[in-house]
Design goal:
The structure is a homodimer. By secondary structure, chain A is of the alpha/beta class. The first copy, chain A, folds into three domains: 172 residues, Carbamate kinase (3-Layer(aba) Sandwich), CATH 3.40.1160.10; 66 residues, Alpha-Beta Plaits (2-Layer Sandwich), CATH 3.30.70; 71 residues, Alpha-Beta Plaits (2-Layer Sandwich), CATH 3.30.70.260. Chain A is 34% helix and 26% strand. Chain A contains twelve helices and 20 strands. In chain A, α1 links the parallel β1 and β2. In chain A, α6 packs parallel to α8, α7 runs antiparallel to α8 and α9 runs antiparallel to α10. The first copy, chain A, starts with a strand and ends in a 6-residue tail after the last helix. At the A-B interface, α1, α2, α3, α4 and β3 of A face α1, α2, α3, α4 and β3 of B.
């Protein structure tokens, strides 16, 4: 008998018919002799509808009240899942974040989980019932309702799996796993049967949308095996697990691309110590996550600094940077929203030199100019023009022979 | 400075525009120097939509899960009211039934309030903020979410007003107060400026829909003055207060009528002790609220017993009654759904004889047959044919000269 946490996203519980299908699958898992804990997101577009309603009602949305509003969504979906399980003869009870003992800090809208008590969940399991827990929400140390932000329901599921020492955490979504590239861009891309947490982290950080970065980090830190799979086909998906040193490593696992960043170039700054420090400290003070940074070779005593930031933070970043222009004696500040970051990811890269050369050769042969480069031990990212991103992904997928056959 | 509890029903917060109007009024009351506690229902048709969704999803709706589902409704409306107040520069925080300390028993779907802690509400008031509380919901002694059933939000408001020793509890609704008769039936009916709790109880019990019976009972028991008024016109409505002995009493305050009951007649039962006891004990054991009971004069050693029950309970009542037929040797059981109960209510009736005679004369003059009669010290109710109910109400309203001029 295994203990499994099953997390169902918004598209998996989008309407009554979907909820019935989900209940069938939970019942099936339960009847095979497993203990099952279910975590659900809000139904389909509920969250978007609630946000729209808030905007219609008021130009001011205090974060505490926004959390109270949005946390209504999972109450609806989890109660409905319990009803459908009851109809299938399975005793099920729903638990809010607060009832499940998901204790968070007080940062409304993107709270961090501090502790998972889970007493009522354990009691429900011991009673032979299926506990159904609201994803995305918790209760703060001040006893206020909080939400966990983007990817919050995945994080709830992983945190619960860790607290309950579950054998696996299954993340049900509308795609059938993690692919070697976005199948809409590369139709011949293949589903990965197994990847390491590190690879999954790089995929999530560079545009792979299947899992949110923080839930993967949490799973890695707490050794929770993840199984990403489809609630539409129910076929086995992708296991995300600890790296197995005995296993032969694939050199390259996946190619990702990401249009969500913009590039800022600060031109003509004096090439002397302390300039970059001032700039990036100011950006950090405004909570702006700078991703890639490139500083060109100095010419005539001045240099250009380029860096990428999330497009959402572009206007704040430009304000901060422009304010510094006199202090750092820059000649110009330029913004560029037409970039994409294409990344090649693979745990085997560590022991296989030559991957970087293949990436450069492939892009050069297609006349694709590389504007910025950054690497980790298992990733190479190139910033290129965004209208060339799909071509680049297809060519790199081919070059590393990632297709099914 | 007064402490006022303002309760807004579903039609008062039906959409963004209505919520803005409500926020304006709360802000106005607050700026006059009052402390304000707000209680809200779910928006307009939210509850109906959620019930429909539950029925679509499952044929089984466990009451605990139904409560979890329905309690989502007030979270939405109260968060939106707080946002609109924030936009108006007023510090407001929303509180669930649980956060407000509305402790109930464990009867899901129609829980009774056991205690109102209200610590966070008091703290919010002391901090100069406007607490906005979810009506209709509480938390059980088992720490599960409960709902209070029909009229639940009114009950929440009155219970909070009692716990906080508020100066008044204002019930905002879509009508402008309590009328001498249903204005759709009697256009010349007038709004009552002030009535006693006892009269309001009789009105609520006999078909007046403005306030639910239990909230009026709670207000009477805890000496909470109620002010029933419109959130559409904002004009002063009807005060429901303790009877003032010094005040000259109106003989008749209001005429009500009610189509929600059916009549059952058990014919030809032996006229001997214990028969009626057996019948009504069995009905009570099935939680059926029998309203009026009439036993005819015995003829040839047998008698007929007629009684009224809510139409919703008719089929159960018939089952229970039919099952008893052999035991009580009845000759027949007849059901009649074509009845209405017309009631004349007034605190002054106690000291003014002759009201009963006027009722009988008025109905007789219009050839309206009275099938059953029941009275209290301040009410006379007659069961008549339902198609004659509106005529009866109009004629009685005239006979007691209840119109404005």
């Amino acid at each position: 008998m295994a203990l499994v946490v099953q997390k169902y996203g918004g598209s998996s519980v989008a309407d009554s018919e979907r909820i019935k299908a989900v209940a069938d699958h939970i019942a099936h898992t339960y009847r095979l002799g497993n203990q099952v804990v279910v975590v659900v997101s809000a139904m389909g577009r509920t969250t978007d509808d609630l946000i729209r309603l808030a905007k219609e009602t008021s130009s001011v949305q205090p974060p505490r009240e926004m959390d109270m509003l949005l946390s209504a969504g999972e109450r609806i979906s989890m109660a409905l899942v319990c009803m459908a399980l009851a109809e299938r003869g399975i005793s099920a009870s729903s638990y809010t974040g607060s009832q499940a003992g998901i204790i968070t800090d007080t940062v409304h809208g993107k709270a961090k989980i501090l502790e998972v008590k889970g007493d009522r969940i354990r009691a429900a399991l011991e009673a032979g019932a299926v506990p159904v827990v609201a994803g995305f929400q918790g209760v703060s140390t001040e006893k206020d309702v909080t939400t966990l932000g983007r990817g919050g329901s995945d994080t709830t599921a992983v945190a619960l799996a860790a607290a309950l020492r579950a054998d696996a955490c299954e993340i049900y979504t509308d795609v059938s796993g993690v692919f070697s590239a976005d199948p809409r861009v590369v139709p011949e891309s293949k589903r990965l049967k197994k990847i390491s947490f590190e690879e999954m982290l790089e995929i999530a950080a560079t545009g792979g949308k299947v899992l949110a970065l923080r839930s993967v980090e949490f799973a890695r830190n707490h050794h929770v095996p993840l199984h990403v799979r489809s609630s539409f086909t129910w076929e086995p998906g992708t296991w995300v697990v600890e790296e197995d040193p005995s296993m032969e490593q694939v050199v390259v696992s996946a190619i990702t691309s990401d249009n969500s960043e913009a590039k800022i170039t600060v031109a003509g700054v004096p090439d002397k110590p302390g300039i970059a420090a001032k700039l990036f400290r100011s950006l950090a003070n405004h909570s702006i996550n700078v991703d890639m940074i490139v500083q060109n070779t100095s010419r005539h005593g001045t240099t250009d600094i380029s860096f990428t930031v999330p497009k959402d933070d572009l206007s704040t970043s430009l304000e901060v940077t422009n304010r510094l222009v006199p202090e750092i004696s820059a000649s110009d500040v330029l913004a560029d929203t037409g970039i994409a970051r294409v990344s090649v990811i693979g745990a085997g890269m560590k022991t296989h030199p030559g991957v970087t050369a293949t990436v450069f050769e492939t892009l050069a042969a297609a006349q694709i100019n590389i504007e910025m480069i950054s690497t980790s031990s298992i990733r190479i990212s190139c910033v290129i023009r965004s209208d060339q991103a799909e071509t680049a992904v297809r060519l790199l997928h081919q070059a590393f022979e990632l297709s099914e056959n």
